[in-house]
Each structure stands twice: as C-alpha cells, then as structure tokens.
C-alpha cells in the first residue's frame, strides 16, 4: 500500500527544490567563490624568474631500437646540443639524463642543458686547474615519451622506468664505442648517469632503482623538480597507489636499520626542489622527502630558499627559471669528477656541495665548513691592544678606509666557562662576495694565538689583552679565511621591493661559540684598497642568545584570536630570531607588519625578514619590509610522518635583521589572515570535494530507496536531498567529526611514544594521516561542515546540469519524433511505438558480450564505463519522454530512479576518466599494444547489466522483505567510505558503487520471474523482455 503522504510528492517536478536546499546551495556558492577568490588573489608569492634563451639541437638515437627495449616504437632517446657552442654529436663528457613529467615534452631539457653548455664554455673549458680536477662538459640526454600521462596510470609509470633503465644501459655503451665517443684517453668509462627529473619524472627516476632491469650503481645522483614524492597527486587509479607504495616501501626499507651494510641506496643522493605556493599543479608539500630518505642522503628545499634564486616557481617555470637553472648547473659542475667511473665525487662530498649551493647556510644543524677543513687562506696578524675590541662592543663602520693600510678589528671569542648564556657572532656588510666567496675590501678571519711571551699562549689559551702593552714581543695570530662560510642575503634598502631583484647581495656571517671554540679571535680586516673611502658599511657583534632569540609560547586558538605582538627595543641585536611554535600548519596564513621609527642619521639598511621552517628547508625573504604575507609548507594534510628527528611542530621562525645603530625600536605584529587561508584549501583538499559530494549522493539514494520500499514512490533527487539535510547528512558529519577527534588523539599518543626514537628503527604507520581530513590537528574539524555545505551545493548544481542535459536531448528527440510522425501520416501509416524498444534481447546480449571480450583483451573497463554513462543519459531521455507522454506512478518512479542512478554515475565518472584519457592518448600516438591492466570484467559488469536493464525500461521492484535493509547498508557504506578514505583511496569508490550496482541487478533478476529456460528461449528466438515491463507511448 502506498502511504498517502507521498501521493503528491510522486508527481513533484524534478526541478523543484525546498528553501533549505536552495539557501544551502547559495551559501555553498558564496563559500566557493570566496575560496576561489582567495586562491587567485590572496597570499600570492611574487613571480621573479628570469627569462632564458637557447638554440637547441636534438639528435635522436636510432640505434636504440627493439633489440634494446620493447618500447622502441613508442618512445625515443635524444642527445641535446647547444647551437653555436657544441654541435658535435659524439659523447665526450659526463652523462646526464633528463626525465620529463606528466604529459611533458623531451624538449623541456633545453633550458638546463643550454645553461650547462654555456657555463662549461665560458667558465671551465679554459681553466686547466679545474680540468685537472676532473671537470668535463655534460652530455645531456632526454627521453621522448610522446607526452605520456604518468600521474594517472601506474602501469605507464612502470613502463617508462623500464625503458629508461634500458636507455641508461645504451647510454653507457656509447662511451665504450670509439665511433661514438671523444673522451680523453686514460679516463675510466662512465658507470653511472646523473638524473634530473621533472614532476612525475622524479618518481619514474626513483622507480628505476626498484625494477629487475636496473643495473646496480648506474644511478647515484637524482635531482627532482616539483616531484610528488610523498604521495600520489591523485588516487583515482589503483595501480598508481600500489606503485607508489612499492617504491616508497623499497626506499624506506633500504635506509632502515635492518638493511645495514646491504643498503642498495647507500651511495644514492636524492635532492628534491619544490616551487612553493606558485605551483598550482602539484602541492609542494608532496615534494617532501622527510618520510623517505635520511638527511645523509637527501633533503627537500624550496626555490625561495636557494641563494640568489630567492623566488618561488610554478610547475613549469621551475624548468626554465634562469636563477634556478644557474644554481643547478653550478652544483652539477661541483659534484662531477671524470677521473672516477662513477663520474661524481663521494656521497658525503656531494651532500656537502648540495647543502652549500641550495641552502641558506643559516640552518641550525648545518655545520660550518671552515673549522673542519684546510684554510682557504693563511694570514699572520699582530695582536695589538688597540686592535682588540672590548667584550660586548659592537663594531659599526659607516664607510671603509681609503688609500690606507689594512686595519684589523679583533673580537675575542668568549670562553665556554665564561658564558652565562650561549652567544653567537654576527656580521653584515653591504659588500657582495664573488663566486669564490671573497669580499673585495673586507676579510673575515678565524684566528689562533701562535707566539707570545705570556706562558699560556702556546697552549692555545685565550690571551689577556690587558697586559699586552707590557709584553716586549707582540704576540702573533695565525688566521684562516672564513670566506667559505659567507652567507648571501638579498639587499634591503629603501629602493628594494623583491629579494630576487638583488644583483649585489649583502654578505653575512653567523657563528655560534661552539662552532668557533677552537679559535681565540675573530678578525675583521678592512683592506683599504680603494683610493677613496667607500660607502661600504659593516656591523659586527657578539650577543647573547637570550637577547637574539624570542620564543612566543601560545596555543593556536589564542594565536588565531589575538595574534602576536612584540617590540624590539632600541638596544636590540642586529639579528633577532622570533619563534612561534604554534604556527606550523600549511592551511593557515598570516599578515606580518613591521613599524620602524625614522633613523636620525639614515639607516644603513631597511628591515630584512627571513621566514623559515626546519623541515623541509623552506625560507622566504622579505626586503624593505613593512607588510608581508606569511604562508608555509609545514604540517600538511595526508602527509606521511617524518623519518627524521626534526619535528614539524617546531613551528615558524622569523629572522629579523635591522639597523641597531639607529637607536629606535621596532614594532612587529603577526595576525591571522583568514581570507588568505581559504585559498590554501584548494591545493590540499581539491580531491576531497568530489569525495564528500559522493558521500551526500549516496545518502540521497539511500533515502530514495527507503521511501520507495515503504511507499512505492521513488521521490525526486532534490526531495530526498531535502530530507537528508534534516537527518542523515548532519548525523554523518557529526559522526565524522567525532571520529576525527578520536583519530587525532590516537595519533598524538603515538607521536609522544615515538618521540626521540630512531624513526628508521620503528614500525611506523605511514598511512595514519590517510583518514578524513588527513590533519593531526583537531582545530580543523570545522572543515567538515564546510565541506558538507560545499558538497550539497555541488549535488544540486550537478543535478540541475544533468536535468538540463536530459531536457536538451528530450527536446531534440521530441522534434525528431514529430517530424517522423508527420511523414508517417503523409504516407498513411500510423504506429504505436514502444519508447524503450531498441533491439531484441539477443542483439543486446551479443553487443554486451562483444564489449566484455574487448574489455578482457584490448580496452580498459573505464571505456565501458564511459559507454554506460552515455547509454544512461539516453535512458533518462527516454524515461522523461515516457513520463511526459503517459504520466503515471510507474513512469514517474522510473524517471526519478533512472535520473538518480545517472547522477551517481556522474560522480563516479571522475575516478574512471583519467585512465580512459591515458588509453585515448595511447591510441593517438599509435601505441596499439593492449593495456596490461584494468581488464577485470567484474569491475564493470554490474554497471553494464544495470544500465542495459534500465535502457530496456525495467523498473526495479520494491523489496518488502528484510533484504531491503541491504540496499540501505550498501549506500551507507559508500557514504562512510567516501568520507573516511575518499581522498586517499578514491579508486575504491568505483568498486563500492559497482557492488551496489550488482545488488540492484540481483534485485531485478530475482523478482523478474525469468527462469533459465525462458532466458535461453529469448536469446535463441530473439524475443524481447516481457511487454509488461515496458512503457507504451500514447497513440
């Protein structure tokens, strides 16, 4: 019996929505517009990459054919040469292989390769000393993958890795063939290749080392650009998730304590360069190596951190950014050594070069170079009393000497037992270092006493400078140059706007007393080489850490409500390091404001700020700063935990350099930028949007089936959504919020237990952040109701889009039907059509069988899903026509049912679309070899059968028994899974929806009353399904 309450509802227009639904949709649109506006206009890093020019020449290796690789007909291998510099196609240098990324071109290698050719020709080729150290030109090879799509398809990624291992074997063989090489006699043949990978090319590079055809030792250096190492960029393909897991497990296990001396990656260095917030293709958080590689073998650094780069880059500009390519090429030429078969220096030395070239030098756990190696320059100074500065004195020179003798200034280094608190030495000057680190008019030296009549001087004790005037023989100092420790900072004057416009950076030195404890003095020597006094200024001082470090301990809620405010007094140190441990999330942004009073004699420089976190290495510089946008890539959603001891919760630090000679204070404030924070959700939660929306759709269909089984009325999609918004949707969101609190609590307990342990020795759970919001911070629970509102709005908009599409097709079909009937009347014919008659059952079964054969052999099942979506659209058009021609309970129910299934299929479609695109791309490049994956018929058969039954006009019957609860349970399972794991394992959403389709087919078959004998007769005779199941048109 029908329940009276639904009699009017069953005839309700599918377009009609309640006030609650419409108001929620309007709110979701406003929120979405705010997020998009924030993403596009707020907290945007400035773009500072310089343009580049090159004259590329590519030579394809036709000899790399099917005898070397089974992919010879699909891919290609090229050698790059720079026109006008190197047009010889014989190999003669160090092999470097460029691997392009998702849908990338092999020609993208040209920017870095061109710079390498120019740098060799202009700086190295005519330098015998560097030539004798093993420096040679770089032979750049690049692979043409025909713009393969690797981000969406795991098998394509594996195919590329297999091909490149074969390519490396071929490249190394070129150096053995006298016809192909011009290497100097006596040099060892190369045994390894340097890899540079962009985007997914970096993942392909790491995959190569895990495959059976990898030649051990053939790769020892990998530099990746914007590569998503930590997790796959999307989770729509099961193969890509499985491949990522296999690769990452292999790398983690290799570096674990269990591997010991058997580590196959012990000599491999992996450097990951990330572009920052300008990269809107791959979240730069995913470039982190913290969960994969120990600090001894690799690290992640942002381009805004790198000296003289100082700018972020987007996903493509990271390849051609002029400052960045110069930094990469300089590093490459410092790690190569043609005298060794590996073609590179030892791993420890390589890591030292990369840290020196790519990091600021201000990192806390990066030691200085000078105290641990031979001096760059030796010098002897006389220890004169008038040259020694008293303890606590600040050296301040507004101009250096001109046309005079050198003038030394000596800072005595405090002894350890004299320290009430730790001290550090800082020096800044506006003189720029050259490529060797030398400063034209200034020397900074680390000195020790070597001769004195004071008895304890020879033992290395500190000198008592107060008694020097009584000493008949002046003590001598032997000094080591500190030029290799110089840190470059962007200039910050009244005319500076961006750090990347700096041409002559500031020089900065910073030492803790522990780092220079083996010396007695720091000597600052004004060389006085200029004929006239110069405008070179110098500020140097020792200061206590308790003066130069400020830690603001406060909770995140307090920070969000009140911000951070502090005052730097007039007698402050030149550099103050402000730490705010509460700021560690990549989802929140802030506004920094600095108010400086005017300087009476003119400030030497304007306030300079370095924003940084310790893991990964991300620094941003703000010059001449009054206001600045603060955003970071700290603790990010869905990221695996770190192997390293450095905790992300150390928070944000702000190093503030200011002129302390002005005698004025600085007012600094840091306030949350809520509007700017909205845009950060786009990159971190872009795949969460369809997952939560599918959760709402599942709840809507569940409600429709419950009412249908109870009353016999299949209500419209919007009616069901209105009911769900009052009951199941808020209940499920509350349940997810509670789960998020529980999961966060468990994760926090785990972190406390493992804190201070060797992470590589623990059985760490690298998937613990895969659930829900993927964030261990409970404060972000508010995102769930916001996501729910956005999902409801998306449901309504897609529902209206589907309705519009169906009505367009219906209008076209109606026009065609009218024209057809008019023609029939003119010829005296009059027929009654069955709306759903589109072929006999035998024909349908044959077509379906052919489709299944194709799926099992040649095409992926995603192709069949696309076909099923098109057929379902046609079915909805027919159902609408039947409902308009003969409105009844049956036709209205069938239309609403068909439309809801169509909406469900549309939200599952994004999961299947990427693999379908990969297949189409393979056809476009004439790669006709069948897919080696995605041929499981069971993954699509239920959808195909369900769509075929609907296309026949068969309405699902009501289930009056206890089995009706299974339908609700299945839809609720889909909703729960979409909320919990929809972001991390989206491919399983298709499988669950497929199970639901199978259950609906079972209901259909079990109630149809068809026996096997009847079904066989229908197939053999070509009969249609029973007529009672169909909808007739009115004559």
Automatic annotation (TrEMBL):
Pfam families: PGAP1, PGAP1_2nd, PGAP1_TMD. Residues 91-334 form the GPI inositol-deacylase PGAP1-like alpha/beta domain. The chain crosses the membrane at residues 20-40, 688-708, 729-748, 779-810, 845-874, 894-920, 965-986, 992-1012. Keywords: Endoplasmic reticulum, Hydrolase, Membrane, Protein transport, Transmembrane, Transmembrane helix, Transport. One of its GO terms (biological process) is endoplasmic reticulum to Golgi vesicle-mediated transport. It is found in: Endoplasmic reticulum membrane. One of its GO terms (cellular component) is endoplasmic reticulum membrane. Residues 690-1004 form the GPI inositol-deacylase transmembrane domain. Involved in inositol deacylation of GPI-anchored proteins which plays important roles in the quality control and ER-associated degradation of GPI-anchored proteins. This is GPI inositol-deacylase. The lineage of its organism: Eukaryota, Fungi, Dikarya, Ascomycota, Pezizomycotina.
